[in-house]
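Please predict the structure of the following assembly.
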Amino acid sequence: MKVPLPIRAAILVLALLSLFWLPWRISLLLVFAAGLVFPPTALALGILADLLYYPGHGFPWASAEGLAITLICAAVRHFVKTRIM
Amino acid sequence: MNRQYSRSHRFQNGYVPGRGSATGGIVVLIIVVLIVIRLIAPTVWHTMTTPLWRVGHVVSIRLGGVGESKMTLSSERDTYAAQVAALANQNAALTAKVTDLTKLLGTRTQPDPGIVAAVLARPPVAPYDVLIIDQGTSAGVTLGALVTGEGGTPIGTIGQTDASQSRVTLFSTRGIQSPGWVGASHIPVTFTGAGAGAFTVSVPKIAGVQVGDGAYLASGGAYPVGTVIKIEVDPSSPNVSLDVRPYANPFSLAWVTVSK
């Protein structure tokens, strides 16, 4: 599947802005999409979400989810890359 | 034909590293810079993030109106007009009662003036049950201070604060327990946060709590926070579980007051 560069860039920027603008469930989907474009983005966005909203107690779920999405996206990319080669 | 797949050909695929990764690298770099700014220069961070949240609030309000027909809006307006009239009457009655009580008790019942703060971010944008408000220690906000919504309904306490922003941990945060009372006879209970402004409460069946009874948080007085909307009965348990709908909806809070 060929995804044009402007769309990939738009996904990354939208994922970043969604932390400020969109409900967190939609942000989660966008972070996943951004992770497919470039996996470390998901972890970075997760840490950023915790810096923005972490209440100071409890488990930092956003960072953990970012890490999980990064690993999943890296695995997906590796699988797809292996299949098309 | 023996077709050769060159490296440049593979780079055209969306899932294969290429220019997308370079863009991703730039975005990650930007995020890392943001994280560093947040950690070493919180004031700069607040200057950067506050406009973004404000724009987001405006966008969500605009998007919220998309798709609503004129008939729906007209119907809602009529409903709200009726509610405003009813509340105005109730407010007049309560004001008269407060005046009487103030005559009896003096000004002891007058609450201290608080710090009014705008809500920059709220659920569902915030993934945790927190509010981000635009006042901090420079305005007199202190850690643990009580935060109230419209009408003086308590909604949470200050969980984190710095010079110009604070985070409010809502009483309704999942798992947080707060003491209070339910019903006209003030049956002591413990409210457990259920997320998104709601609470669950467990009380003995014999307490006789009914749907519509008031719920009050104990926070330097009995503050009404909501009403019982559902009673779940488990035949095998001596207790019933109450669902409390809050008066203050955290999804639509625009202003809050932080007590000094």
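The longest helix of chain B spans residues 70-105. The two ends of chain B are 80 Å apart (CA to CA).
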